[in-house]
């Protein structure tokens, strides 16, 4: 059986995960959650390879224990990476109005270890219009499986208005 495509009937620009919104459509308080993820030793090893961060606190069980850690500590930058907006629906919602990711900051509040499950979220805390553009400010948070806040931070994005 052959199927013929109708090039006139399909427009890839309309093939959206969610309908695109504008800066003006966004609201303070909106929450964008990323899927939860249980970290494994394989995740930590892969990040260690990519980052070239070879500090023994990240991979040497005995070194970590002798210094008061219950287990090797997952790289902080790896934990921060779980706040990537692309893991949420946010970049799909803003579609073509996105210009750039301006800023990221965070505080690491508790250690993360292999076996921990992380629950990342971005919450819009500010909408700052400025002429033809606007800055969206989000609170970035990650909780673990015990409900502990392990990371608190902020992202800023520049959008067209």
Automatic annotation (TrEMBL):
Q: Which domain of life is it from?
A: Bacteria
Outline the extent of the MaoC-like domain. Answer: 28-143
Alphabetical list of CDD domains matching this protein: R_hydratase_like
Recorded hits in InterPro entries, A to Z, give: HotDog_dom_sf (IPR029069), MaoC-like_dom (IPR002539), MCH/BMMD (IPR052342)
Q: Which SUPFAM superfamilies match?
A: Thioesterase/thiol ester dehydrase-isomerase (SSF54637)
Family, similarity comment: Belongs to the enoyl-CoA hydratase/isomerase family.
| Protein name as annotated | MaoC family dehydratase
């Amino acid at each position: 059986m052959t199927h013929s495509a109708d090039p006139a009937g399909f427009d890839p620009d309309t093939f959206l995960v969610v309908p695109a919104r504008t800066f003006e459509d966004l609201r303070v308080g909106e929450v964008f959650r990323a899927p939860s993820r249980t970290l494994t030793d394989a995740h930590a090893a892969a990040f260690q390879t990519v980052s070239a961060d070879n500090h023994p606190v990240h991979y040497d069980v005995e070194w970590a224990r002798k210094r008061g850690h219950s287990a090797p500590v997952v790289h902080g930058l790896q934990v921060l990476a779980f706040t990537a907006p692309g893991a949420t629906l946010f970049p799909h919602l803003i579609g073509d109005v996105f210009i750039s990711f301006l800023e990221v900051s965070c505080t690491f509040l508790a250690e993360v270890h292999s076996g921990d499950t992380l629950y990342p979220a971005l919450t819009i805390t500010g909408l700052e219009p400025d002429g033809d553009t606007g800055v969206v400010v989000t609170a970035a948070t990650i909780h673990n499986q015990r409900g502990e806040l392990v990371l608190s931070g902020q992202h800023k994005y520049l959008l067209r208005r």
